[in-house]
Amino acid sequence: MLNGEKMLFSGMQATNVLTIGNYLGALRNFVKLADEYNCLFCVVDEHSITVRQDPAVLRKQARDLLTLYIAAGLDPEKNIIYYQSHVPAHAELAWILNCFTYMGELQRMTQFKDKSAKHADNINAGLFTYPVLMAADILLYQADVVPVGQDQMQHLEITRDIALRFNNIYGDVFTIPEAYIGKVGAKIQSLQDPSKKMSKSDENPNASVYMTDDRDTIIRKFRRAVTDSEACVRYSDDQPGIKNLITIYSCVSGKSPEEIEREFEGKGYGDFKSAVGEAVADTLAPIQLRQKELLADKAYVDGIIKTNAERAEYLALKTLRKVQKKIGFPERVR
Ligand code: TRP
Q1: Mean pLDDT of 216-239
Q2: Could you tell me the CATH superfamily of domain 7-181+298-327?
């Protein structure tokens, strides 16, 4: 941790394998943000159990995500990359913050409404208080900025409300976090329905390109991508499928949409789709290789997991102890 740099907190769920949408829209930008901020990248396994999980799968996916962070270029010595469940302060602060959050506020959360509809047989209390745990994640580290997508803005708002409410009663305990909204261009849509966001949980496997897909699979998925009958590679809202492919190609090649239009002028969609597939496969290859090496090096990764949990805990406890003292919990006898 460098003094004077601002704190950034980011949490990601390990459920389902990440897609190139998660990578190009979030993870890849984290590597740049890591130069500017003191960053924590948390695998939020406690959030994951608000819907039923297979224990073995959850464990594997959590390790996959943690190693993917590193493989994607995040240095685990500069950044803190860790599991939420390894730092008990998250759950402890969440309990306290539950007592400063109103039922009515939580009832308004659109994600709660969506998830309750989707998992009607398991509308558990954790699903309801999910945003409070998220507030605890962020506030524990006095985060200045939180990179979030549009879907998490409401949760960031409630985090700010809870923090302000607490500060109004007890003084300046929490930093009020701001959203860090990434630049445009990195919003990746489904390959099968370009009106929808590319999602980790899409039922159609051809809709999403996963970070773990091999070269042939990637190229095949791009070849099958839904386009149109214009037969012209143009960056236009009238051609959402092609526009999405241009965006992806632009992200992985660094070329601008105009350059790409010129490159494929007079060429068919087949050539274009293959070029995008190849370029994506080329981008993912070194990350996949590095992740494979990490997964094979158990001792090294275990060491990182241990050290980083300790580093996170050190920071978290500073805030938690302050909060406990403010609200009147008895002091610990040393
Ligand atoms: N709720 C977030 C999501 O599903 C994940 C998350 C948990 C998070 N805690 C966080 C994101 C704290 C940012 C900050 O995407």
Answers
A1: 96
A2: HUPs (3.40.50.620)
